[in-house]
Amino acid sequence: MAPGTVASAFAVLVYVLIGPLQQAAALVPAIVAVFVLGGVSVGVVLRRRDGPKDPSHVVCDEVAGQWLALVSLGYPGRWEFILTAFVLFRLFDVWKPPPVSFFDRRQGPWYVMMDDVAAGIYANLASHLCLFFVWG
Q1: pTM of structure
Q2: In this predicted structure, what is the pLDDT of residue 51?
Q3: Alpha-carbon distances, residue 32 vs 12, 24, 50, 78 (angstroms)
Q4: Is residue 88 part of a domain?
Q5: What domain count does the chain have?
Q6: Is 129 left (phi over 0), alpha (psi -120 to 50) or beta?
């Protein structure tokens, strides 16, 4: 859990410090790039070692998922949204409700990436709902 939380916090820090990433037009292509490069990288790691199906030292999946949680047309860069998206992404990544758990139970690099993508989608939708009902 700690490597994932650190990677998610790093992803948030990069999002905050690189202002253009707060816009969906820049963040979505960055997510796609991290997803593709991450899937390829995870595949290499999985082929080179005999270990866990989701090696904890490979954190590109958390970066892609956290950034996906941060995509927003209505609240980009707002601290309330950033904090909510971070907390909810970590919650869904640890809790693993379906379909996150579906991807987590499968073997292979794309499943490693997809469980965090699914958690990111949940976090994104839940964050938007939270902010809509709390902040309007």
Answers
A1: 0.95
A2: 62
A3: 17, 12, 28, 23
A4: yes
A5: 1
A6: alpha
